[in-house]
Every structure is written in structure tokens, then in C-alpha cells.
Automatic annotation (TrEMBL):
Main location: membrane
InterPro entries per the UniProt record, alphabetical: DUF2179 (IPR019264), N-reg_PII/ATP_PRibTrfase_C (IPR015867), UPF0750_membrane (IPR051461), YitT (IPR003740)
Topological type in the membrane: Multi-pass membrane protein
Descriptive protein name: YitT family protein
DUF2179 domain residues: 221-274
Record Gene3D superfamilies: 3.30.70.120
Source organism per UniProt: Candidatus Lactobacillus pullistercoris
Keywords for the protein's UniProt record, in alphabetical order: Cell membrane, Membrane, Transmembrane, Transmembrane helix
Positions of transmembrane segments: 12-34, 54-76, 83-101, 107-125, 145-166, 172-190
Location in or out of the cell: Cell membrane
A GO term from the CC aspect: plasma membrane
Length: 279
């Protein structure tokens, strides 16, 4: 998907701006109005506004510019160029996007805010873009100290989340931590999609040919593997098929009608590309 998107410059720009705007909406409508800082430069801006009353877009802009300076010094021009646009455009979108309390329920606010944040960040990842900010220090630490960037970014976000305690109490801390979970879940499903598939492996000692015929008649994408039994050392055949979740129940029923003792291994797959499933 990402490879195909990069072929269409206009589509990349639309997705880039849409991703940043979704992040701006999550801050201005959900996080900001209830003073919940869920990490990143946007989280820092919420804390700063709550304590000193400084506008969130101004803080994000200042933090992002400082991070860009660090990137230029330690990461080089190419990396800085890749993240510069997002770093500058995000605070502009935050400034022009209306800011108000979209819901009076704080739990709903962090659920929607976390989901929107995850969606926005995932859209940026799809077009190889970034909103900059606190994503830069982990890149520096990885380059010079070989530290895992995902872990260091999580540590930075957790520091910002922890500061909620001093600004708005423990309740804000727990809500911010919960919102991080919502962001992670949303990013996972945005990347892999909601349309999960099942990969089914079938072995039968006596009725494999009959099962194979039924699968060929009712499904597509059947694959046959040559396998060797671990204990018997006998050569056998194994059938592999990928089906939609709504087809799984009937598939198992058909197999068991032929061979109740068939050995079946089922695993979930996040995404299937090619064939009848397209991209």
C-alpha cells in the first residue's frame, strides 16, 4: 500500500495534510480542553498552557523548531528535510482548527482523542512523513548509542504523561496512560486493517484427497505442501488455505464431515495481498 501511494504525489499530499489535521483535531477537541497530555510535543504544549497559559500552537512550534535544530546537528540535512514540513505545518493547523470541548465525559475524550491520534500518525507513516517533535531524540539516541527508538520514544512519552500528576492530579495521569493504549490499538488496526483472515493448515491420514477436492470446489487459493512427520519420518501432504472470518465455520464443518480426526491448525493473518483480495 505504501509503495503504491508514493506513486501519486497529489494523494501523498492529501494524506499528509489529513493526518496532521486529524492530530490537530485530537488535541483541540479532546486532549487540550481537559488538560490531558498524552506525550509528544503536543502533550508538552497542553501542560505548558495549563500552567502558564501559553497557546498550544506556539509551544508546539517552539519545541518542534528546537528539535529540528537538534536533527540538523546530529542527523544531517536529509533527515531534517523529511521531518521539517510536518513540524511546521502541525502548529499552523492547530492554530486554525477550532478548539472546544467536544464531550463532557473525560473518558470518552481520551478514547476519541487517542483513536484520532493513532489514525493521524498512521496516515503520516503511510506516506513516510512525520510530525517531528519528540520523535527526533529517539532517532539521535539510536544513531549514536544504538538504543531502540520505539523504547526511547515510549520513555519520553511516559515522562510527559507522568507530568500530568503535577498539573491535574492522578486522574489525568491514568487517563493519559489509557489514551496511549487507545492510540496503539488504533495504529495497529490502521496499519493492518479490520478485515482479518484465517490461515488454515489441514492434514489427514486417510481422506486428504477428498478434503482437497472439497476445498478446490468451494474456495480459491489452495496450496499443497510436501511435509515430513516429525515422529514417523513419513512423507505427507499438507493443505493450506486462507479464508475470510465468515467462511471459517463452514470450512471446519466441511472438513470434519469428511474426516473428524483431521489435524487442523488455524492462525490469524493481518493482511492478505494479491489474488482475489487485491492489495
Amino acid at each position: 500500500m505504501k509503495k503504491d501511494l508514493t506513486k501519486h504525489t497529489w494523494l501523498c499530499w492529501i494524506i499528509f495534510l489529513l493526518g496532521l489535521e486529524i492530530i490537530a483535531i485530537s488535541i483541540n477537541l479532546f486532549y487540550g480542553p481537559i488538560n490531558i497530555a498524552a506525550g509528544g510535543s503536543t502533550g508538552i504544549s497542553i501542560l505548558v498552557e495549563a500552567v502558564w497559559g501559553i497557546s498550544r500552537p506556539i509551544t508546539v512550534f517552539i519545541v518542534n523548531i528546537l528539535m529540528l535544530i537538534l536533527a540538523a546537528i546530529f542527523l544531517g540535512k536529509k533527515t531534517t528535510k523529511n521531518i521539517a514540513l510536518g513540524s511546521i505545518v502541525l502548529p499552523i493547523l492547530m492554530e486554525i482548527t477550532p478548539s472546544f470541548k467536544a464531550t463532557n465525559n473525560d473518558l470518552l475524550a481520551v478514547i476519541y482523542g487517542g483513536a484520532l491520534m493513532g489514525l493521524g500518525v498512521s496516515l503520516l507513516y503511510r506516506v513516510n512523513a512525520s510530525s517531528g517533535g519528540t520523535t527526533i531524540p529517539p532517532m539521535i539516541l539510536k544513531k549514536y548509542f544504538y538504543l531502540n527508538s520505539a523504547v526511547t520514544l515510549l520513555c519520553i512519552d511516559m515522562i510527559v504523561i507522568f507530568l500530568n500528576i503535577f498539573v491535574d492530579g492522578w486522574n489525568a495521569f491514568f487517563l493519559a496512560a489509557f489514551s496511549q493504549l487507545m492510540t496503539a490499538i488504533t495504529m495497529n488496526y490502521t496499519e493492518t486493517g479490520f478485515d482479518k483472515k484465517y490461515q488454515v493448515r489441514i492434514m489427514s491420514n486417510l481422506y486428504l484427497d477428498e478434503i482437497k477436492k472439497v476445498l478446490q470446489d468451494n474456495y480459491v487459493g489452495l496450496t499443497v505442501y510436501d511435509v515430513v512427520g516429525g515422529y514417523s519420518d513419513d512423507k505427507k501432504k499438507q493443505l493450506l488455505i486462507v479464508v475470510d472470518t465468515n467462511e471459517y465455520g463452514s470450512l471446519i464443518t466441511k472438513i470434519h464431515e469428511i474426516d473428524p480426526d483431521a489435524f487442523i491448525i488455524t492462525s490469524s493473518v493481518a493482511k492478505v495481498h494479491g489474488g482475489r483480495w487485491g492489495i
